[in-house]
Amino acid sequence: MKKFTFFAIIVIIASSFSLRAQNTTYRWAVGLNWQFEDFNSVHLSVPDQFKYTKWQGYKFPSAISVGRNINPSFNVFGQFGISKLEMDRMKDLGQELSSDKFWTGDINIAYKLANGYIMKETSWFDPYVYLGFGAASIKDLDATNGTSYIKQVTGVGFNFWLTETVGLNVQGAYDYMITPKLSTTEAKRDDYMHYTLGIKYRFGAKDTDGDGVKDKDDLCPEVPGKVELAGCPDKDNDGIADKDDACPDVAGKPEFKGCPDTDGDGIIDSEDACPTVAGKKELNGCPDKDGDGVADKDDKCPDSPGKKELGGCPDRDNDGIADNDDACPDVKGIAQFNGCPDTDGDGVADKDDKCPDVFGVASNFGCPEVKKFEYFKVVYFGIDKSVMMTKYTKDLDEVVTIMNDHADVSVAIEGYADSQGNDAYNMKLSEKRADYVINYLVKKGVAKTRLMKKALGEANPVGDNKTATGRAQNRRVEIKTVN
């Protein structure tokens, strides 16, 4: 375990570097390695481990590994290897062998530091720690005891990716023998350090949509597409990927983001009000023969320059009525008299005006209106509140001033609520709001007999109760004159 501690320190130091890491693009990896064992250093102190290490190995390749990616942080891998032990060295360690062959196999789960949290997933330096279980076989001289072992593996490893798929792999592990159990009186355990060094190749890049473009390079990985468009489809075959094509079902031009321009006037068909006739941009692609700024399709007088507000028709007397609708095209008039004049301009034809030389109203036969005083004011309340918002105090003070100036005026005080809550509750709330306004006005000196209270609950909404703004408009008290 001392050897593992040393390698753990290396991993912690290395995790501070990040350049270009392994990612989850390639799901599988295989490796060919040299395998080495050291039965000596596990019994020594840390300073003596490398000084007295007795590595024993075999020719290349002496081990193979196969791994599968689970997620950015975890891999599983299995490895099998064979080594050739030197009998004299093993004898020095208290182990007499009848065979120089030693094999080992294990399956492990590895935690990757290049996982996007500790180091970048795209780093070329890809360290990991791993834990696993396996078996080992070694023969004693009499080939009767300790022939095979069940072991626990604890180790660290490093991938150095030279290309996207090929890299160097180095691993070091402590193999702890679980069974058979050893005598407590024995001087040395059969545990050993286990090293591999070799080449790793990863493969199995996903191509979800099967279009020949790997998911990592595919801009549209879920939909089959064209290689030249980075895996994206092009339904209309105009050379523009559907995801970038504003008109994916109709072939178009690159300068118009894949949309067509049939009449060639520089305006795409979908925005061209006259897609088959070349026109002006300011008229949405439609022509204007008389040049009055009104498209021919909308021009009621396409051959005579006119005014936009009159549908492109002329108005000689400038009374706002097109000449073709004006009964008096050369004399300024008003629309309700088909362009003819009204001497006093009160909207009542002179023939019906009892006061033709005095401005009046139609309701009084063209004579001046006898006006009555009218006044209207609204104040608002917060959600579920019967106390008015303070910013409307000045509005109630204005009501007091008006009523002092017009002693013969009475007002209705109408309380309202929004639709939240039940009808009975809202009716009571609207009454409390009306009472608040009445009490305020009375305290300011307005006679209560001039104030008529009405509680109307959710009735007569002025705003949409489905929105917060609308509900705020409905939490109100209206103050209006009563004549």
Summary, kept brief:
It is built from six helices and 13 strands. The protein has helices spanning 2-14, 46-49, 87-92, 393-405, 423-443, 468-474, and strands spanning 26-38, 55-57, 63-69, 74-84, 101-112, 125-137, 148-161, 166-179, 192-205, 376-380, 410-415, 451-455, 476-482.
Descriptive overview:
The protein has helices at residues 2-14, 46-49, 87-92, 393-405, 423-443, 468-474, and strands spanning 26-38, 55-57, 63-69, 74-84, 101-112, 125-137, 148-161, 166-179, 192-205, 376-380, 410-415, 451-455, 476-482. With 483 residues, it is of the alpha+beta class. Strands 1-3-4-5-6-7-8-9 form an eight-stranded antiparallel β-barrel.
What layout of secondary structure does this protein have?
Blueprint: H1 2-14, E1 26-38, H2 46-49, E2 55-57, E3 63-69, E4 74-84, H3 87-92, E5 101-112, E6 125-137, E7 148-161, E8 166-179, E9 192-205, E10 376-380, H4 393-405, E11 410-415, H5 423-443, E12 451-455, H6 468-474, E13 476-482
Parallel strand pairs: 11-12
Antiparallel strand pairs: 1-2, 1-3, 1-9, 3-4, 4-5, 5-6, 6-7, 7-8, 8-9, 10-13, 11-13
Number of alpha- plus pi-helical segments: 6
The SSE order reads: HEHEEEHEEEEEEHEHEHE
**Can you summarize the main beta sheet?**
8 strands, antiparallel, barrel
Helix fraction by DSSP (H/I, runs of at least 4) = 10-25%
Instruction: Enumerate the spans where pLDDT stays under 50 for 5 or more consecutive residues.
Output: 1-22
CATH topology of one domain: Porin
Instruction: Give me the secondary-structure category.
Output: alpha+beta
Shape: elongated
Strand content: 25-35%
The level 1 CATH classification of one domain is: Mainly Beta
Strand order of the largest sheet: 1-3-4-5-6-7-8-9
Q: Could you tell me the mean pLDDT?
A: 82
At CATH level 2, the architecture of one domain is Beta Barrel
Total strands: the figure is 13
